[in-house]
Specification:
Blueprint (H helix, E strand, L loop, with lengths): L14 H5 L15 H9 L17 H10 L6 E4 L6 E4 L17 E6 L4 H13 L1 E4 L2 E4 L2 E5 L5 H14 L4 E4 L3 H8 L8 E5 L4 H11 L3 E4 L4 H14 L4 E4 L8 H16 L11 E2 L12 H17 L4 E4 L4 H14 L12 E5 L8 E5 L2 H13 L4 E6 L6 H6 L5 H10 L2 H4 L4 E4 L7 H8 L2 E4 L7 H8 L8
Parallel strand pairs: 3-6, 3-12, 6-7, 7-8, 8-9, 9-10, 11-12, 14-15, 16-17
Antiparallel strand pairs: 1-2, 4-5, 13-15
Bound molecules: iron/sulfur cluster (SF4).
Iron/sulfur cluster (SF4) binds next to helix 2.
């Protein structure tokens, strides 16, 4: 295997390396006070190079290209779709999430086929579009529709693609190994940049022509044959197709370990060895389990769920699935959310004074931290008990109550600052603040710094309703 000389990994690039290539005028157009601040954000992957508009000017063309090269991810970013709903796949810098944040969460595509009647098609698209789950303040959704040719009939495929395109503006994957079928579908959605799935050793030339003619990304399918996958990648690159995705095959049952090994080997070649022929996003197809011959639908779905979550972990950049039931999809979107959060930053919510129900000047004031998981648990317990109260959310950098007390992010001083900042005195006429039970040890000191009486609430927010029913309003001397 030929290996290009490995460029600096993202971890080795310092903000200074980047700063040197920026215009260094500190003009502030990017929204940051100076170029150094922007360089730091750029190295962390929190902004795009293009956010520095002066860098796009003709005179900075060379610096822009150098910066692009310097910050290019090990796995190419490929866009599928157009307009607001386009998805980006790949764009990975590292093999392991603890090394650097993973970017571009794995889009999940659900299939429809050209043998479904209008009613089935419509119902399925509605389900795909309508799937939505609120998880610690984020809305988790499905991303794409994969239109499969089962009939192998160009006219049937054309009609189905046309119908699907009218029903949804989600990005599309067109699936057929037959170039005539593929072209019939492509003409219906030529402005929507669908993914062409897929080129094989038998059809690569025709599929490459279509990819170039319609300016679409192209998937390569070489199940279980990494040499062939790599060779097709070389051939297609030489032919001029630059936006490639790789499908090394997804095998179930006794093929599970081969599947993970193949995905891992390819990602290792891209990230550790700089193999440009394998530096493309990977497609996982848990949908293949539906060809297993298994009779029980639930067992197939269960296997599909396992495959999907395995591949989200290692290293699929795009998934095609068939199951649409919540119990199969929900674990995937939650797992994906967790894998793709920044491991350096706890998931947090905005600090501040939150209002529940219709509190008045006599209503209780509870306190928690801005760790998202804690906040949404407390919020859910307050809402389900229909309580009228205030909740003071203290900024602890997204750290939970117990850890932030131990790490001194939640202290008597930060509580006093929050009481002052969010003007609690103007909201209620009493002077009682309810601390979570896990922060009980701050109560004495917090009384001194805030001047408020501290009540120690339950350790678990599920006990808030009971606590308030027994202890609120407090009776003088009882607290
Ligand atoms: S827009 Fe560019 S030149 Fe201006 S401050 Fe930001 S990084 Fe510097």
């Amino acid at each position: 295997m030929t290996e290009r000389e490995l460029k600096k990994s993202i971890k080795e690039i310092s903000p200074i390396d980047v700063y040197k290539l920026l215009p260094r005028t500190n003009c502030g157009e990017c929204g940051f006070p100076n170029c150094m601040a922007f360089a730091t954000k750029l190295v962390n992957g929190e902004v795009a190079i293009e956010d520095c508009k002066p860098l796009l000017k003709e005179e900075n063309k060379q610096a822009y290209s150098k910066l692009k090269e310097l910050l290019a991810p090990a796995v190419k970013t490929v866009t599928i779709g157009a307009g607001e709903r386009l998805v980006k796949v790949g764009g990975k810098y590292v093999m392991y999430r603890h090394e650097f944040t993973y970017h571009n969460p794995t889009p999940i595509a659900v299939d429809v086929t050209d043998e479904m009647d209008d009613k089935e098609l419509e119902e399925r698209i509605k389900k795909i579009e309508g799937f939505s789950y609120n998880y610690i303040g984020r809305t988790l959704k499905l991303d794409m529709v994969a239109v499969r040719s089962v009939s192998n009939d160009p006219d049937a495929f054309k009609l189905t693609v046309e119908k699907v395109a009218k029903m949804t503006d989600m990005p599309l994957i067109l699936c057929s190994f037959n170039p005539s079928v593929m072209e019939a579908g492509l003409v219906q959605v030529k402005d929507r940049r669908p993914l062409i799935y897929a080129a094989t050793k038998d059809n690569w030339k025709e599929m490459a022509e279509l990819a170039l003619m319609y300016n679409c990304p192209l998937a390569i399918f070489a199940p279980g044959d990494l040499k062939l996958l790599r060779s097709l990648s070389r051939t297609l690159l030489e032919y001029g197709v630059e936006d490639l995705l790789l499908d090394p095959g997804t095998f179930y049952d006794e093929g599970l370990s081969d599947t993970i090994n193949n995905f891992t080997m390819i990602r290792r070649c891209a990230c550790k060895k700089g193999d440009e022929l394998l530096s493309f996003p990977l497609i996982g197809t848990p949908i293949t389990v539906w060809t297993s011959g298994e009779i029980s639908k639930e067992i197939i779905q269960w296997k599909e769920a396992i495959l999907a979550s395995m591949l989200i972990s290692r290293y699929a950049d795009l998934l095609i699935v068939h199951s649409i039931d919540g119990w199969v999809i929900l674990p995937q979107v939650i797992w994906r959310f967790n894998i793709y959060t920044d491991p350096r930053k706890p998931v947090s919510v905005e600090p501040g004074l939150k209002v529940f129900g219709k509190p008045d000047e006599n209503s209780p004031v509870l306190l928690t931290t801005n760790y998202a998981l804690t906040y949404f648990t407390v919020e859910s317990d307050i809402k389900s008990a229909n309580l009228d109260c205030y909740l003071l959310v203290v900024d602890t950098g997204g750290i939970s109550v117990e850890s932030s007390v131990a790490g001194r992010y939640l202290t008597a001083d930060t509580i006093a600052d929050a009481v002052k900042e969010y003007k609690l005195e103007e909201k209620v006429k009493h002077r009682y603040l309810i601390l979570p039970g896990l922060a009980a040890r701050l109560s004495g000191e917090a009384e001194d710094t805030t001047g408020w009486r501290i009540l120690v609430g339950p350790k678990d927010s599920s006990g808030i309703a009971k606590f308030l029913s027994e202890k609120w309003p407090p009776k003088e001397g009882e607290e």
